[in-house]
Specification:
Length: 71
């Protein structure tokens, strides 16, 4: 059966639910906090995409640095 409802994970992060599960599993395998990654990196990255901002390696570095400073 195909789920025809909105994928809330995609709406919030721009990542499909199935792909988010892969990311979650990788985080667990590597001992990383998935919730931290989700809130501090994935959401920030998605916000840049929504605002049609150019995303280069410097912006990604800033997102990661900002997230690391919260630890």
């Amino acid at each position: 059966m195909i789920n025809k409802g909105l994928d809330t994970t995609f709406i919030h992060f721009g990542i499909r639910k199935d792909d988010m599960e892969i990311i979650k599993n990788l985080c667990e395998e590597q001992g990383l906090g998935f919730e931290w990654l989700e809130e501090n990196i994935l959401k920030e990255f998605h916000n840049l995409k929504i605002n049609n901002e150019d995303i280069d390696s410097k912006k990604i570095e800033k997102i990661i640095e900002k997230a690391l400073n919260k630890i």
